[in-house]
Amino acid sequence: MPTRLLFIEPGGCHDTLNIKLIEGAKAHKQYAALSHCWGSNQPLRTVRENLTQFNKSIPWPDLPQTFQDAVTVANSLGISYLWIDSLCILQDDFLDWERESSQMANIYENAVVTIVAASSAGDSDGFLHPRPEIPQGTVMLQPKKPGLDATPVRFRGRLDHYDDSRLQDPLEQRAWAFQERLLSRRTLLYSTHELRWECNQLRLCECRHNSLTSRANSSHPYAIEPSLSAPPTRTDIYAHWHLQIAKRYAKRKLTKPEDKLPALSGVAHRMSRLLDDQYIAGLWRNDLFGGMLWQTETNSPPLSKPRSYRAPSFAWASVDDAITYHLYTLMKYINQSSEILEVFCQPAGLDPFGQVEKGHMVLQGPLVSARD
Ligand SMILES: [Zn+2]
């Protein structure tokens, strides 16, 4: 359970709900979580100075529109507790932030539902507002055979749901939101054009695109584990990590470059339980040759690197570029004469899946000439 939760006091109506921040929420099991874009300015956040006040009450007018909308949705669903990162984690206390962010997997997994404010670019935008209309109309199809009546056919614009390259909603571009989606058991997603439901058994949306598809189906784009007809092998799981998680995650945007590994730490934590393997700055100890087969999407220098050290250069987390694993299919041809003699990776803090302070590797194998 998260250390703090927002409590929605019963009895209020939607525009005058009483909210306060409660600590030690272990006894309360039913809470919703919010996945949202912070935007360029954070109108309201919890810091040491306002914590005592927020424990008593957070005035409704002070809540930005996205938070008000999330409280309204939770309250309408009969859920009295809500977790919002910027209010439930002290934003000026690194230790508090590190402890809570290392619990991210549990926080989203244990939420009854995650409210995904996909259409909001910032906390001031909100998501419970009239939606732009999808272009639609009717055409009359005239049969070739004479004497038959024309048939009206309705059409409407296509909505893109799970194609990463075409997704338009602001939250679909953000790095933190990726693992929030993967870790959640149930999501209620407010996109620009429609409302979508997603859980382990079912996904439904208003336009009925790919409805009734189980997460157990391999085509589900937000499955944390590969879903195949047979139980996945370790090779399947490593491939899933590289191709369906790391590759898709790396192209998403971060406000703070140092969050590259922390914003995926919850998924890495889950995956480590599945693999029982050591995490090395976004790669896995027993699959390092496969993990190192990444290249940048443009495949041309210069690499885009953060100003401060973030990961050893053999890890994709060391660059800001989008990556591909085009060479991954060559894994089976990799010369088995190569060997990793030593690998070392030191986390910067308490979380073994979070920021990295330093790392290196010693390899042994044949050398070949390469272009400079
Ligand atoms: Zn749809």
Notes on the structure:
This protein has helices spanning 48-56, 65-76, 85-88, 94-101, 104-110, 175-183, 234-250, 265-275, 288-291, and strands spanning 4-8, 19-23, 31-35, 81-83, 113-116, 136-141, 151-156, 186-190, 195-199, 203-205, 279-280, 283-284, 295-296, 323-324, 339-347, 356-364. The chain is of the alpha+beta class and 372 residues long. It folds into 2 domains: 1-132 and 157-223, no CATH class; 229-372, no CATH class. It has an 8-stranded mixed sheet with strand order 2-1-4-3-5-8-9-10, sandwiched between helices. Helix 5 (104-110) crosses helix 6 (175-183). Bound molecules: zinc ion (ZN). Zinc ion binds at residues 159, 161, 194, 205-207, 209. The site of zinc ion (ZN) has 7 residues, from loops.
Key words describing this protein structure:
globular; 2 domains; eight-stranded mixed beta sheet; 372 residues; two-stranded antiparallel sheet; 22% helix; 9 helices; alpha+beta; binds zinc ion
